[in-house]
Amino acid sequence: MSLLARFKVITSRWLVTGFACAALLLFVGLHAANAQQVVLDFRFDPSDPGYNASTPSTMTLAPSSAAQTFTVDIYATVVPAANTASTNLGLQSISMRGIDNGGNAFSTGLTGPGGTQVGVFQTSGVGNFAGVAPFNSAGFAQPKVSDLGVSTNGGSSVTTATANGIFDFGGTATANRLSISSATGALVYGGGASGSANTSTTPNGWQWLVGTFSFRTGTASANAGNSTQFLPLLDIASGQAGAVAFTATGAPSASTGPATNGSALTFTVASVSSGAIADNTNSPTSFTGSATTASVLHAASYAGTNSPLTGYTPSGSGSPAFGPTGSVTIGPGLIGAGSTLPEVATIVAGINNTANGGSGTANVSIAWRSRVTSPAPTASQETGGAGTAVPVSISTVGLVSDVVNLTGLSNATEGAPPSTQPTDPFVFQMVYNPNLLSKANHQISTENGLIGNSLLYLASLNTTSLQWEKNDA
Question: pTM to 2 decimals?
């Protein structure tokens, strides 16, 4: 058994609180004397796990998290030169490309059979793009999907045409680009049920969801802060830019011109705390050290949220289960003897579907304390003693790890009074100190026997009776 096996896993349904170069071919109705324009944006779809309405083009990935497939929405906004009634703003068609910036958010590139590679989802070079009513013309054709290279100038051009392992869409030939037109072939005007006001532009414009496609990430990088963008590409100088047909004056016919590059998709690897400090004040209810915290968006995974222990508060009379820096050297006769073992608590699996009132961000906290030496009965249960630990009939060792207080996963609204509330199912694991097992018989067979007979397990402290209770999943 490897050192990676030295933890205990439990699936829980409860929690104790107290817990993606784009080149745009745009036929845009612009006049040189004014600033009317069409802006093209990539945004994540509200159905995507981790979607945040306040930052719809940004997605946070947990370090080393598995590959995911996201639905991407393509928005076109007609922006007038001056304040204009939304009913005067109309859009007929767009033609565009899309490319990545060669970022470092993904640790895997061109891997797997068709349909599973990183970037724009495709099968045999064909994507799964779709126009969205009323921009769903009968003659719609899929754009070419290939690795165009990268754009490092914000989508102004393809700066490097060397493949980098992330699939893009569109090509230099018009037929290879993504072209989306209204179902009638005429202008679609704003101000009605089709589209919505875009209050983030100046002056305010009218936006339409004109199409969708799928984008697949690679396995996320393990390095916090790494990022990758997928951009609309405005390669105007080479004649490969987007074209848009629209009106911003209410005219019955569309005019053309260059478009403006709007929001790119941005994937960012989340930051991970450097570690936690355990409370060593010898109190069963005190967790005043430094906790590990993480924000997990609604519908995102808790997986990878972990808390490495790096030490204990300097004063106090508690009984740390690990050494002063949160690690121990495994003693002779045990699995991995002579190796250094750090104490870590990790959420291995689980999705935030109901935390913080049912649709909010889970502000997860993992706080620590050392084992206590008083008061009874908690102390004797934690530090060991014949007939004192739980269950009485089989445990004389007590706790073989420090104690964590996991909060922020419950469906109680953030800031509500503390209470015991249910959570979504999740898997939690803790590393234990094998040196605290049977002190009289440090043998591999002893440790394997305890594991095989489920005599190493996660337990919870009943804060009313101060008794430790076994958790059975």
Answer: 0.59
